[in-house]
Each structure stands twice: as structure tokens, then as C-alpha cells.
Amino acid sequence: MTVLITAASRHGSTIEIAQAIGRVLQERGLAVDVREAATVTMVDAYEAVVLGSAVYMGAWLKAARGLAESEATALAQRPVWLFSSGPIGDPPRPDEQPVDVAAMIEETKAREHRIFAGRLDRHRLNLREKTIALALRAPLGDFRDWAAIEAWAATIADTLQPLGDRSAEPAGQP
Ligand SMILES: Cc1cc2nc3c(=O)[nH]c(=O)nc-3n(C[C@H](O)[C@H](O)[C@H](O)COP(=O)(O)O)c2cc1C
Hints:
CATH superfamily: Flavodoxin domain
CATH class: Alpha Beta
Number of domains: 1
Largest sheet: 6 strands, mixed
Bound molecules: flavin mononucleotide
Strand content: 15-25%
């Protein structure tokens, strides 16, 4: 089975989370395709999908939102996991839900939605973003928790493997 791991990212940190998820799934023997959400139009070719987005001003980026909407029917027919990347700092802020994806979970029948801390790199921000970050006193830095990301990816691999490779193993194997 091929798993699509796709994410919308403005400054690169969320696509790196998608790549990390892809590496874990690959290590577990799954075929993966990691792609920017803006380059994906259909999900029919994939047996399962992990879809994520960076959160900006309380919302997913358009490319990820658009894909979830336009492919909702196809997504609902295969295992889907959603993730958001946004909160910044240690402990991460905002500490409440940074984005409301309830409708998206409903429409795509997603199994889970996970929130991961993100990265705020001053050198990558445009002037408008810098102004907002300054006004919000957002802490700068890379707060991505790779252990949490990899652990989540491992749970996805565990769920998918019985649907694929493991059925080919000899009887009696765990
Ligand atoms: C202008 C601006 C607005 C942001 N708004 C939010 C927000 O509403 N909620 C949140 O959790 N994170 C917010 N963030 C943090 C980003 O989601 C975080 O930096 C993320 O890791 C960026 O991902 P990217 O590098 O893939 O674009 C904001 C960052 C900027 C620069």
C-alpha cells in the first residue's frame, strides 16, 4: 500500500514534519509519497492519507483546506489522519486548541487530529508576519517535538501494517 503524507507549509517546518512521518512509515515497510498539499489534486491512488497544515491566524493554510474539501469523499473512503503544526514556545502557546478542524474531521472521517508545536524563525518571516509575531510576543525558535511526531507516526504504521504487509506473513507471527 502507498500512503500519502501531505502538508501545507508556508516556511518549511510543517513539510519537514510530514517528511519525518514519512521516514517512520518507510522504516516500517510502508511505501510513502510525501508531497506539498498544493501539488496534490487527487488521493484516489493512495490507500491511506496523512494530511497536515501549519496554522496561521487560527486556520489551516488554503492548500490543505482546499484538498480536504475537494477530496472529502475520497478521503472518507480510506484511513485518514490529520495534523496541525502551530503552537510555539515551551510550554507551547496558544495552549487552547489553535484551530477548529471538527468539520474537517467529520467530512473526511479522519481517525485522529494531532497538534504539534511548530517553528518560528525570524529570518523566514515577511514584514507583516514579523509585526504580528512581535505584537503577540510570540517566542522565536524551533519547538517541534520530533519524539512526539515519530511516536505518532509509529501508531499510524501499526494501524496500517495489519491492513497491508502483515497479512503476507506466515501464520503464528505476532
Ligand atoms: C503571522 C503568524 C501567525 C500565526 N498564527 C498562529 C496561530 O493562529 N496558531 C498557532 O498555533 N500558530 C500560529 N503561528 C505559528 C505557525 O503556525 C508556526 O510558526 C508553524 O510552525 C509554521 O509552519 P511553516 O513553517 O510550515 O509555515 C503563526 C505564525 C505566524 C508567523
